[in-house]
Design brief:
Blueprint: H1 7-11, H2 22-45, H3 50-98, E1 103-108, E2 114-117, H4 119-125, H5 129-132, H6 137-140, H7 147-160, E3 167-172, E4 178-190, E5 193-203, H8 205-270, H9 274-304, E6 313-315, H10 317-334, E7 338-344, E8 347-348, E9 351-353, H11 355-371, E10 377-385, E11 393-400, H12 407-411, H13 422-428, H14 434-444, E12 448-454, E13 458-466, E14 475-476, H15 479-482, E15 503-507, H16 511-523, E16 527-531, H17 534-545, E17 561-565, H18 573-582, E18 589-593, H19 598-607, E19 611-614, H20 619-630, H21 638-647
Parallel strand pairs: 7-10, 15-16, 15-17, 17-18, 18-19
Antiparallel strand pairs: 1-2, 1-5, 3-4, 4-5, 6-9, 8-14, 10-11, 11-13, 12-13
Length: 648
Amino acid sequence: MRETPTKATMSAGAAPGVRIRPARDGVLVGAAILATAGLCIALLDRAYAAQSTAILLSALAGVGVFWLRRGALRAAEEQESKRIPLREALERFEQVVGRAPSVAIQGFDRRGVILHWNDACEHLYGYSAGEVLGRRIQDVLLAGGTVRAFEETLGEVWETGRAAAPQEWQVRTRGGLERWVYSSIFPVFERGAVAEVFCVDVDITQRRQNEDLHKHYLAAMESAHRALEEAYAAAERASCAKSEFLANVSHEIRTPMTAILGYSEILLETAGGPDCLEAARTIKRNGEYLLEIINGVLDLSKIEAGKSELEPSACSCCQILSDVVSLMRVRAEAKGLALSVDYEGPIPETICTDRTRLRQILINLVGNAVKFTETGEVRIASRLLEHDQEHPRLQIDVADTGIGMTPGQAERLFRPFAQADAATLRKFGGTGLGLAISRRLAKLLGGELSVTSELGKGSTFRLTIPTGPLVGVRMVDHPAESLTGWQKPAPPAREPSLRLDCRILLAEDGPDNQRLISYVLKKAGAEVVIAGNGQEALETVLAAQSGQEGKAGGPPQPFDLVLMDIQMPVMDGFEATRRLRQAGYQGPIIALTAHAMAEDRQKCLDAGCSDYTTKPIDRSTLLAAVARITSAAASPWGHSEQAWAGRE
């Protein structure tokens, strides 16, 4: 608690505001007064005269004043001794920090009048101390938008005696440039009150510029990211458009191909003369070639879109090679070529890969070798690499003695629709898709496909694929051993003798396909009712289910099976299937579609179809599917309900 100077201290000449310690100085003064009083009383007792009494009393008062004065002087000396270290500290601060070129220090009064200006201020702001002392800092440095905020902060510091939170201020230099400073404003006290306010500034202009640049970069990155997203979305739209285009092209080509191939088979069965048979074979052969082109385009599209799925399983590499050689031997022998398989070292009895894709690659490689070789041989060599390593691989070479290629021709060989040159295309034909698809399939299998070739001497295509783990897999030295237990799958049998005893609704809008499919089904013994669109199919099935006659005609009895074309007028097969399921129909529905993409199959199943087959219709496959679904039915409804319930 602050003490108020007494009248005694003021009269004794104590300076206002100087504290006197009462506990210490009061005791000293009291002791001196008592000692002097005791001496005076002793003198009085010894019979001094009355005049001596007055003299002694005056002496007593002088001694008291002396001791009081001495106490005040001691208090002032102690206070001054405390101020000396503070002054020295301030001077040391001025020497260490105040002259630092990067720390600008200003001092100003309550109105902002500048009282202190160090060298760093001159370096930062361009004003010397003589130019700014006595002027308000608001008029010298502060930009117009910051004056009011600064005055509010200054007033708060002065009133509360507390330092303000550090802030960033925009200031103006002598040359009119605007800079940013990070400022700490704090008060300096004297005799318990705020005597001056100091401001310590650090130049952060570069940092702010970097932040602005960073914000600009962020904005640019966000803009680029948005542009990338838009480009990605555009690419996705283009990919969807491409897929839709391919699906439509596939549908438009596959639909007539069903009639071409189907009727060519009928002609082969019924044609009487050799000329008619040869014409039917020509139609069928060219139709199959056209279908091969369509399938190649779709395969490439699916691979590029990342929609080609693998089904790895344990399979015999030797068996696959044997199948390929058996398939290609007729072509090779027709050209007088030798076709052989060599196994260089032990071969694993089984490997883990997608057998269908591996077979597709090998058929393409061996087929090309036979195609582009006029004399000599085609040799297949297989070997195991890195058997003892963590990731063993199988390597298969397909070497021929054909026309060969130049390095430039070999470089562009794996591009889609590319061949060695125009002369090769004219002489040998082909689409140039096979090798492009094969290389992409090899990458899907985790391997690679490469070629070495010499013009006029032949080519060697090398396929390398991972085998999967070989722990516990038997190694065989002779291919005949590897075929033990791996029987060659029998091809689907033709079903002319297969008899169907069922009632089928065929929903198909194409007249040619109506006649063809109904002919195949009726020849096998089925009763067929035709609906020309999805609406007719819906009404006919529901009417037959309820015992009424539908628009497609026929007696009012339920159907054992519905063959539903997907793309039809009035109502497509998807909608017709959905409405049948919603109406409670549980019989089997097989989708007939020329759309051959994987997602098309899923769409059919999602709509409620029990199964799915693509056009062109393969006769044996179609009859086998119909027989599989209908033959086990104890009654017209028994198997149908079971088939659809199983899909639920």
